[in-house]
Write a structure and sequence with these properties.
- This protein is α/β, with parallel strands linked by helices and 398 residues long.
- It has two domains: 3-57 and 304-397, Aspartate Aminotransferase, domain 1, CATH 3.90.1150; 72-302, Type I PLP-dependent aspartate aminotransferase-like (Major domain) (Aspartate Aminotransferase, domain 2, 3-Layer(aba) Sandwich).
- The protein has 13 helices and 15 strands.
- It has helices at residues 3-14, 47-50, 59-69, 82-93, 106-125, 144-149, 174-180, 206-217, 268-271, 287-302, 305-326, 349-357, 380-397, and strands at 26-30, 33-36, 41-44, 99-103, 131-135, 166-169, 185-190, 220-224, 248-251, 262-266, 330-336, 339-344, 360-361, 363-365, 369-372.
- A seven-stranded mixed beta sheet has the order 4-10-9-8-7-5-6, sandwiched between helices.
- Helix 6 links the parallel strand 5 and strand 6 (166-169).
- Helix 3 (59-69) packs antiparallel against helix 10, helix 4 runs parallel beside helix 10 (287-302) and helix 11 packs parallel to helix 13 (380-397).
- The protein is globular and about 60 Å long.
- The two termini are 35 Å apart.
Length: 398
């Protein structure tokens, strides 16, 4: 029995079966490369599902974590935490926001956003105005509020009754969204690009129209940038490319290079509605997590990572479009920056397994869309290797 097989056997005995795990046991990572327990090497174009934006074990982040771990790991939010303050200042300086609430995940950040939107609406407009409109095919997390906000039935099955006050409209349809607004509506919550839903981009100008609609109807615009944020689409935040600003934004995934952290960002006039005792998080924004996030954001902003994301995103998209011309079962290649989906007329699950066996890690979402969210530091040589493996797999499926 190999070392990997031993770990897989032990996993099956003690870990809840909430994931359909692949027979891979990663033990080490560097840049865009992972190694398993048996020493096999993999080119990682999944990056922990858009988490490892700087690659595995980025030196600047590792150094910052090591130093902080030897100084102070955790203390209560009853006190003023310097690293938390510094990170909040960095986020506000580089976004629309004026206040930040820290938590541990994207789902928690979305929970905070929903609570803030509803509390603001109650205190400004009165009761019975708590409905939030979201999109079909959206994904906002696995908590009860998260699955209630999510526009995918598969994540809700078996968990009724859900949290009331959410309605789902077709993503990208401004007329449907406008028609759905009622006196009970307080906010619209959207992903700038839907990740779990199939890497779906809205029509050009849609988010601008939504922003205008929110202004007309006195609604809040919540943007879930858990996956699109932190450089993933080629700018620090995806909303920047639309020429708009949300009222509330949520972040997680790539914010701290793999150390668990989430953040809800908001304008000052909104954030004042979350006073002492209204919300909290024991671990949220602790010294270790915020130190990792500071190092991550600083590297993203100062080391040409965003330029590389845009350049390599264009290159990867063009190479995938070349494959599209070659294989008729590929119907679309779409995305922005290094968040790219390849839609097929055939199922993609087995392709993901085959790719893994050949040393390439990718992902399939909604059954037939291969998703590519590699580290933002990926280079042409690594992309060429990925394309060669995909070409081989596609030729066998044709």
């Amino acid at each position: 029995m190999s070392r990997s097989q031993e770990w897989i056997q032990r996993n099956d005995q003690v870990i809840t079966a909430t994931y359909g795990r692949y027979p891979l046991v990663p033990v080490r990572g560097a840049g865009c490369t992972l190694w398993d327990a048996d020493g096999k090497q993999y080119l990682d174009l999944l990056a922990g599902v858009a988490v490892n934006n700087l690659g595995h074990c980025p030196p600047t982040v590792v150094k910052a974590i090591q130093e902080q771990a030897a100084t102070l790991l955790h203390c209560s939010n009853f006190y003023n935490i310097p690293q938390q303050i510094e990170l909040a200042e960095l986020l506000c300086k580089n976004s629309f926001a004026e206040r930040v609430f820290f938590c541990n995940s994207g789902a928690e950040a979305n929970e905070a956003a929903v609570k803030l939107a509803r509390k603001y609406s109650l205190e400004v407009f009165g009761s019975n105005r708590a409905e939030i409109l979201t999109a079909t095919a959206s994904f906002h997390g696995r908590t009860y509020t998260g699955i209630s906000a999510t526009g995918q039935e598969k994540v809700k099955q078996g968990f009724a009754p859900l949290v009331p006050g959410f309605r789902h409209l077709p993503f990208g349809d401004i007329d449907a969204l406008r028609a759905a607004i009622s006196p009970q509506t307080c906010a619209i919550m959207l992903e700038p690009i839907q990740g779990e839903g199939g890497v779906n981009l809205p029509p050009q100008g849609y988010l601008t129209q939504v922003r205008t609609l929110c202004d007309e109807k006195n609604l809040l615009l919540i943007l879930d940038e858990v996956q699109t944020g932190c450089g993933r689409t080629g700018t620090l935040f995806a909303y920047e490319q639309e020429g708009i600003a949300p009222d509330i934004m949520t972040l997680a995934k790539g914010l701290a290079s793999g150390v668990p952290i989430g953040a809800m960002l908001a304008t000052d006039n909104l954030a004042t509605h979350l006073g002492p005792g209204t919300h909290g998080s024991t671990f949220g924004g602790n010294p270790l997590a915020t130190t990792a996030a500071i190092a991550t954001l600083t590297t993203l902003l100062d080391d040409g990572i965003l330029d590389n994301c845009r350049a390599m995103g264009n290159y990867l998209r063009c190479e995938l479009e070349t494959l599209q011309q070659k294989y008729k079962f590929i119907v679309a290649v779409r995305g922005r920056g290094l968040m790219i989906g390849l839609e097929m007329t055939i199922e993609g699950g087995e392709m993901v397994k085959t790719a893994m066996n050949r040393g390439l890690l990718i992902n399939c979402t909604v059954g037939h869309v291969l998703r590519f969210v590699p580290p933002l530091i990926i280079n042409r040589k690594e992309i060429d290797l990925a394309i060669a493996i995909l070409d081989e797999i596609f030729s066998e499926a044709a």
